[in-house]
Amino acid sequence: MAPYSFHETARIEFDEAADYYDAEHRGLGLLFIDGVSRAVTQIRKFPESCEVLRGRNRAKLVDGFPYSIIYSFVDGHVRVLAVAHHRRRPFYWSGRR
To answer: Rounded to whole angstroms, what are the CA distances from 37 to 18, 42, 65, 70, 96?
Structure first.
């Protein structure tokens, strides 16, 4: 599996979304965390299999939630750039590296 890291802001987005879901319904935050974890594992196993958005940036849907993992794959390393809700402004994360 490819090594990976989260952009600092992507980590904040992830944590805030998990907290939101848990506040809406106890245990839902854990389901969100699990969904993101499965998506990241899939990305790490097959980093070039997801939809290309722009340049080296790709997107992987999070099963069961209106989120995508936006990432780049450069020099064998996966960099998670955003945990993006589908209703957010498109490409808001484009300046991240």
So the answer is: 12, 9, 13, 13, 21
